[in-house]
Amino acid sequence: MNHFEYYKKQAMTAGLSDTERVGRYASQQDDETHIFDDVVSKLPALTQQKTTIIDIGCGCSDPVKRLIANANAYQQQLVLVDSEEMLARLPEQNNITKVACQFPDRAFVEQYQGKADAIIVYSVFQYPFLQHNFISFTDNLVALLAPLGHLLIADLPNLTKKKRFLSSQSGIEFHQQWTGDNSKPDVNWNQLEAQGLDDSVITMLLLRYRQMGFETYLLPQQSGLPFSHTREDLLIVRR
User: Would you tell me which CATH number, out of the four given (3.40.50.150, 1.10.3370.10, 3.20.20.70, 3.30.40.10), belongs to the domain 3-158+198-237?
Assistant: First the structure.
């Protein structure tokens, strides 16, 4: 599946909420309202005046709408990157630049290289990981960072973290509530997870960008976010 094309169609599909258009369940609309607060706590540039913020795969739901309101309050320049169909659902403003492309786009990277005080990549990284060269994707992201800029690759669906959760008592109870029966989750610790992110990939990314001169951190998500039990965030900071 080409996920970029899929979400273009989602943006144009009648009858969906904006929460559903970006790939979450309708029942997660309230949980989604906590995402922006979690992002703000990890990106200091979001509470600073006149910074440049880039959101890759911004979508059209609550987090980007609050990002826009925040940019207005702090007089920030906001660069929103997504499909033309998704961007059309967001307002036109003088401090907003909409870029309709699938990242990494060479012209875009050249234009914004070294200019971003903060970059948000929320619930997006799993798609280039599965479909493209995810190392090139991340290398192009860090190229956009200004000195002391922060890149947040957030909402990473870590299959190993999911196993840890489903092996716990709270995870078993969550599974049973979700399925509506008394079954236990099927957790296979010695099985290679070839089709998704796991601890080995995330640890490799942490080490790769440290060896390239960046600081890197693995951060938990606040409880109450749509998938907080099984996801975590990678923060990369340019020195």
Answer: 3.40.50.150
